[in-house]
Amino acid sequence: MDPKHQRVTLNDGHSIPVLGFGTYAPDEVPKSEAGEAAKIAIDVGFRHIDTAHAYQNEEEVGLAIRSKIADGTVKREDVFCTTKLWCTFFRPELVRKGLEQSLRKLQLDYVDLYLMHYPIAMKPGEEMFPTDEHGKTISDTVDICATWEAMEKCKDAGLAKSIGVSNFNHKQLEKILNKPGLKYKPVCNQVECHPYLNQSKLLDFCKSKDIVLVAYSALGSSRDPKWVDQSSPVLLEDPVIGALAKKHKQSPALIALRYQLQRGVVVLAKSFIEREIKENIKVFGFQLSSEDMKALDGLNQNLRYCPAHLFSPFLSDKDTSNSPVVVGGEPFL
Length: 333
Prior knowledge:
Residues 19-300 form the NADP-dependent oxidoreductase domain. InterPro entries: AKR, AKR1C, Aldo/ket_reductase_CS, NAD(P)_OxRdtase_dom_sf, NADP_OxRdtase_dom. Keywords: NADP, Oxidoreductase. GO terms for molecular function: oxidoreductase activity. The chain has a single domain, classed as TIM Barrel. It is 32% helix and 16% strand. It has ten helices and twelve strands. The protein has helices at residues 31-44, 58-70, 92-106, 144-156, 170-177, 200-208, 239-248, 252-262, 274-280, 290-297, and strands at 7-9, 15-17, 19-22, 48-50, 80-85, 111-116, 160-166, 188-192, 212-216, 266-269, 325-327, 330-332. The strands form three sheets. The protein has an eight-stranded parallel beta barrel, surrounded by five helices. It has a two-stranded antiparallel ribbon with strand order 1-2. Strands 11-12 form a two-stranded antiparallel sheet.
């Protein structure tokens, strides 16, 4: 089945392709590789491309999209492009500036989806991770509801077709949903999600609110040593996933991706290897049984590949408070 026709309707009436191509890569990977991989992804049938200001590859991803439009492979309306508002742009007066900066890099007139990247504001400025003299990240006092109102204005201005959030837990979502004068609900919540962290409670909550869950690190992450505990198990080497791959004559990656689709989750597949990109698009060619799905559900261990390292600087080494930073469904310190 042609993947570009596999879409789900969002709560604002727009639709999103259920299979997306993720473009994050560790710092040591040249940014040009994201662009080359995105071109391959579009060539083989991906129509949903996910990037972010924080990935520092919007220029390369935008060039890939425009090159595929220029050579006639796609039209602009065929490509669903997502980017994200970084935490240093959360002050309401900076939100549109952040989006306009991303649009200039992408060289696009609009993005199809704009997300608040994390539910935590940082000090505005040029630094991606502003820190004080002790190396502690400098937060900013901004109400996420005020940031959301500015996101709504970006949608009204036509700079973003849809707006949503990323790495929010249900309480943070509820804060926006219960905001007086709410004009637009978040259309989605993009979080880490895979068989070892299946986010079942958050998924149920999002479904109850007509919010789509989008899964990143669906294949177990790129295992960037800067963020990921190298002793953590490798998802795609799990014996249960391996047995299902053998049973269905598919790769372990396709089993992990198919699992999400059958749960009603929009899933991002990230690989810069041409063979794997071509393989991942085949996720629509088979079906997992209810027994298969139950076996995969049983793998959940609330294991996070992308845990607190990103925001641990917000907490001092001697912080003994009982108020954990909570991101993307589960509390962590």
